Amino acid sequence: MRKRDYFPLGIATGKAFCNRKEETDLLLSNINSGKHTLLMATRRYGKSSLALHAIGLSKQPFVEIDFYMASTEKAVEAYILTSVVELIGRALGQVDKLINSIKKYIKNLNPKLEIGAANMTLELVAAQDSDPASNVKEALLLLERLLVEKNKRAILLMDEFQNVGVIAKGTGIEAAIRHVAQKTKNLTILFSGSNRKLLQTMFEDENRPLYKLCWKLSLQRISAQHYHAHLQKAAQAAWSMQLKQKIIDEILQLTERHPYYLNKLCDKLWTFCVQLPTIKNVRQHWSAILAEEKSDAVKEISSLSAGQKSVLCELAERDKLQMTDKETILKLQMTSSSIVRALDGLDEKDIIEKLERGYRIINPVLKFYVLQGKRVNP
Ligand SMILES: Nc1ncnc2c1ncn2[C@@H]1O[C@H](COP(=O)(O)OP(=O)(O)O)[C@@H](O)[C@H]1O
Ligand SMILES: [Mg+2]
Fold it and tell me: Of 64, 70, 107, 222, which has the fewest CB atoms closer than 10 Å, so is most exposed?
């Protein structure tokens, strides 16, 4: 492995994948026993990397559907129909040999076989004014039935799944997916998404069709201990030496172990430092990242309400569990209900997250600029 491959800004694979052993084992065991799982965490915490890592270990064929661009039920239907066809091909091979079974299992969808350059391709065509939810149900059931018939297993990874909830508003397609998910034995679905609030309503509200359907796995940050071992391995590969403890501490502290920012900083260090990095190198490269990201951070902070900004300033100093105690109310000059409203708003925008020990600002760069703004305008 080349030394720069240790810290990707996209999916972490192979040696770049740090620990997450417990989460991988759980996910793999769920996949192997056909249990659907909901992976939940804020953006850039490592959901896709973990899902793909566990899927890779399972050796099952899979297809990923990313719903981040979907904006209508018809679009969701199109994504799912295409993915079903793709997964049929990957899990069961030549589609022309399956055509009789396919015809047996579908009623409304129209299977179209086309002779391609190398092999036959299948398309599932939905009638013009047909209902997307029933088409989705039929396509997913078709996939499951074919898998059962051929005694094969497969995985559908549905990413940014909260978008389906926004579009379907708890009915239609969500219900269709639940209907199928309740019955499947050979098809496993991994739901993944970053909007925790929306996902929680989709999966935990008794009136919503996906209630209690799957295992929930909330991803936290990778521990300092695990990063320690990971960074030493990468240092050994790049400089044939171990890093000093204080260098590792500085990297972990500046990036707050945010997986994306840690990789971004280390990618720079591992690229530019000919010898083991010094504290000065670490700080210099971190400053460069802060400068690069300044305009985005400032834009995000400027778009917040006055109440949200005040609450954010308070949280930038330390993670706090109790935000509506007397002392904070007096300090912020806000009522307890307006503090709660501001916290909810920031949570919904994915700017803060609630942990056991309190609320925390997710992005270390944003936090830096909140603190800087505070020093300029106390
Ligand atoms: N287990 C891991 N070990 C090391 N880096 C990781 C790990 N998981 C994610 N990352 C890094 O974190 C960032 C975000 O990862 P990604 O899987 O795309 O997150 P998400 O799907 O939650 O947005 C990337 O830079 C990726 O390389
Ligand atoms: Mg992702």
Answer: 107
